[in-house]
Amino acid sequence: MNNKKKYDEIIKYIENYFTCKEDLIDFMKSHEEALGIEFPNDGIKFIRISRQENTPSCNVFESNFIGWKDFGSGDSGDIVHLVRLNLELDYLESVDYVYKLLGGENIDLSIDRPKFKPKPKIYAKNINPKFFEFKRIQRKENYDRYMHIMKGFARTLKTDNKIIKIAKFLDIGYDKEYDRVYLPEINEKGEYVGYYAYNREAKPFKEGDKPIKGMIRKNQKPNLTGSHLLKLWNIDLPIILAEGHTDFVNLIGNGYRAITLGAATKTIKPFLNLLKGRTIHIWYDDDLPGIQGTRRIMDEILKFNETVSLKDRILFKPMFWSLEADVKAATPENRGKVFTQNMKNSILKKYQISKDNIFWGKRKVKGYDFTDLLLSMNDMEKNNRDKIKSFLSIYKKEETKQSMF
């Protein structure tokens, strides 16, 4: 058997070895140390040791192939790719490593390395506007239920009038079958590329499953939610880049300029040309994925700025929620806090950003986000509330080229 044929058969062998996600989980649990992972409390979620995680953020899934996804970093792939990332091996060395763990012989590493050719992602076509006309009709026909869910979605808006206003402005509809409100994903051209469906009190689709509060259209094109609003805002005004759709809806509903990629793991690369010459304040959730996402966005913008003229460069900075006092040693109780704190410090040092740019307020819950802040303002003393309003006024102080509502 020649080397090329042997190599192809080994790849096929690895692919066929795992017939379901339970097979892969069993294999990974049997080789935790060798794979650089850990399953805390014998659960089904695992930690990648190289990322120094405090809580497990990796899941095994079963789709068109059996693999894993790290919701903290955004990495995903098959077992071979996990070895590549964790052990920093090249592709063929990783194949050899996995094959040996499965009991196979060593692969001849002298054979030609095949070039990795990722399969092109096939995205769904744009949605016919009639789809959302139907959602608007259902919104009227099921008004009470619609408003109940909207009060959980736009929960910082305290009056029905404000909720109705933002619902019409963002064209948020309703679907009775799925019992969710539908926020259209509109691109910069005004085209409907998808949707974000939400119900804070969503019930599981199947008995025993976890409820899914928010979901996007299957195979939806990447989108910068709010990009169709950029034309309303003067180019020299700062814009908040929020982490998710709930923050986006609540920020827009309260009159702030905001956009979102929909998750901390999403890349901003496809949309950087839309943001030329603008100022972006990255205000992601106060947790590990949010901080990692902030760093990724900053790196992507920095590389983009190296390729454009001075007037087209994007001004940016991170807007962290708080910076805890330095802690010399990490204990089991504060390990996560120390790790995220050190990550914040390293980002500020790398980009030579003053700590004064960090939001002065202390978070009350893990993963503190903009919706949490806006909600907490109602319970604050007037002096503190006025300070925060003054701090945030730069995002709404100057109104738009035309009224948002």
The average pLDDT value, as a whole number, equals 82
Q: What is the N-to-C succession of helices and strands?
A: HHHEEEEEHHHHHEEEEEHEEHEHHH
- SS field, number of helical segments: 13
Task: Please state the CA-atom Rg, rounded to the nearest Å.
Answer: 24 Å
State the separation between the terminal residues, measured CA to CA.
70 Å
Question: What about the largest sheet?
Answer: 4 strands, antiparallel
Helical residues, percent: 25-40%
Give the low-confidence spans. 323-332, 400-405
Q: How does the overall form come out from the CA principal axes?
A: globular
Which structural class fits the helix and strand makeup?
A: alpha/beta
Strand content: 5-15%
- Strand numbers in spatial order across the main sheet: 6-7-8-9
Number of strands: 13
